[in-house]
Design brief:
single chain; alpha/beta; six-stranded mixed beta sheet
Length: about 240
């Protein structure tokens, strides 16, 4: 493949990956909320050239997948439930191979991965050494929330009740690490936004609580319980 062909191929791979991440969120929006977090995990000094991924052999690279749930920011929302994180990992494991020439061979727990100022490459290098892997796909999951009082309409707006609206903004950040050559071959991100409306007290199960995607999708998703509604919000946003 000539240089021009490689550049076109690289742009295509990045487009595929960005679409995949956006699909994981179901909605994509331009926002700086929450702030990017991957720089506290993967140092920018390891960033390879723009066409680094296209220059390597285009056979499917075997890699481990590390999904990091980041809550280090003061404004961060609580962690996703373990079950939701596991489902997200399974989805990413399937979809990454469709977007880029990567075969995810295993899911690796992120128990000992910690954010550090300017990132810490060594912790990923050690993880790869322990698993006998030359490549890692790293996905950092973060979100932030804001809640405020609203008036909730019941039925056809004939009755109202005080309640709360909670917005959750989510961010998935992806980096593909070449541990053998100590470089990041590819990065991409996708963002999502969902809203939870709930009354100030339970008991209106016919209408609330309800979660829906932003900014355009008004289809309602009904949390199984009033108490668990915030977790449903975080899962839907991702």
């Amino acid at each position: 493949m000539n240089l021009h062909g490689r550049e076109v191929g690289m742009r295509h791979l990045l487009n595929q990956l960005s679409l995949m991440l956006s699909a994981a969120f179901l909605v994509s929006c331009a926002s700086a909320i929450p702030p990017a977090r991957i720089g506290d995990y993967v140092s920018s000094e390891h960033q390879a050239g723009e066409n680094a991924f296209a220059r390597i052999n285009q056979r499917a690279l075997q890699a481990g997948l590390v999904v990091v749930s980041d809550t280090a920011e003061p404004s961060a929302a609580p962690n996703l439930p373990e079950e939701a994180l596991a489902r997200l990992g399974e989805s990413l494991q399937r979809d990454l191979g469709r977007a880029i020439p990567v075969a995810i061979t295993e899911m690796i727990p992120a128990d000992y991965i910690r954010p550090q100022p300017h990132g810490d490459w060594a912790q990923f290098a050690e993880l790869g050494r322990q698993r006998g892997l030359e490549y890692l796909a790293v996905v950092v999951v973060s979100s932030t929330e804001q809640e405020y009082p609203v008036t909730l309409f019941l039925g056809w707006t004939t009755h109202v009740q005080p309640g709360f609206r909670r917005d959750n903004w989510s961010l998935l950040e992806f980096a593909f690490l070449d541990l053998k050559h100590n470089q990041t071959l590819m990065q991409a991100e996708g963002r999502g936004w969902a809203t939870l409306d709930r009354p100030s007290a339970p008991g209106i199960n016919q209408w609330y609580p309800a979660v829906y995607l932003r900014p355009q999708d008004q289809r309602r998703i009904w949390p199984p319980t009033y108490e668990g509604a915030p977790n449903t919000l975080r899962v839907v946003s991702i």
